[in-house]
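Translate sequence into structure tokens.
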Amino acid sequence: MHKHSRRLLRSIGLVCALALGATACGDSDDGSSQKSVSESDIKAALEKGGTITVWAWEPTLKEVAADFEKEHPKVKVNLVNAGTNADQYTALSNAISAKKGVPDVAQIEYYAMGQYALTKELTDLTSYGANKLAAHYSPGPWTAVQAGTDGVYALPMDSGPMALFYNKKVFDKYDIEVPATWDEFVEAGRKLHEADPKAYIMADTGDAGFTTSLLWQAGSRPYSVTGSTNVSIDFTDSGAKTFADTWQQLLDEDLVAPVSSWSDEWFKGLADGTIAALPTGAWMPANLESGAKDASGDWRVAPLPQWKEGGKASAENGGSALALPELGKNEALSYAFVEYANSGKGVQTRLEGGAFPATTEDLQSSKFQDEKFEYFGGQQANKIFAESAAQVADDWAYLPYQVYANSIFNDTVGKAYASDTKLADALKSWQDASVKYGNEQGFTVK
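Result follows.
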């Protein structure tokens, strides 16, 4: 994220300023004039046909688009990879501000949803009956696509309920028990590193998404958004303090490897056992299978460690949805595709391609839960992932400019990983910088 910070500052700042103006103009719209789109309207649009442009990087959508075109021969789906996450958001924000080249459908991660939904840049899908699909999705993703409002601004595509991936071979070698709490996780890190100074319980150089996920699980609610412009940021509540105090021990005692996630060194450590655990989202198995092939059979999955003994809290880490930008065209066709991909036949296609579901029916199905993972020694890991998905609190909120906030994480919180700066102080720096930026963009932030 750090490398994108200057570029995001320019593009997102402009978008937020423009969007705030649009929001002010739209505040008088209480929803009373909202259109209603019937199934017959959508059917007529499909029969008439046309072309829709979909910006997305998720690979399973290629097959979904092909199947959709087969079912609806008059419809052409122009699938475009405009970049992954922050790169696409920059392109999308630039297109919206220029009112030119805006896609009909855009993949947007949950943490970035508020940036576009709260500023009225996404179509409220309530008019298409999307609000009636609430029971189809697990709580974390569904809350995210509502973006703290009464509207529904996207349909969830996947999810990332968290779990603990751990190297059983390494744990057994050093007689380390699978930690049920984060305090036990710290103890496991001490035991491992003492037994083998080259081995670490995990790698961590600081990551905004991982930090906010652990805060979410700890019960911290640092962000609060009221209406479109009133924001509060506070990293000093009890949940944040619990996280900072616990993680500070890992940093002070050098128990986490100073290795960047997704680097070759990181995958090497996961493969050879010098990085022995990985708390992350349920989308991780395919990445382990491809990036750490030699460790097949060594790894297992366990529930995410708890902040309180006996607790059953989890959080989402990652995941995205498909939304309809307000300036896009062919709205009915676009919604038909989104519903097909994320609620209809396309879901199974994507699951078969390795995606992790956000749909409760699939999460709870015996077909899904009974799947045995050869990589995890035949373990039915989906049972753990599904249970985690059901234990995610649904009252978490992100900032309406979270993309920017995440881009400055390394310049603030990152200092706790690279210097003597304490994590609590670094979080305060992140808070102050996020407040300052929000106020500069016209939000009322405290």
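Note: The longest strand covers residues 50-55.
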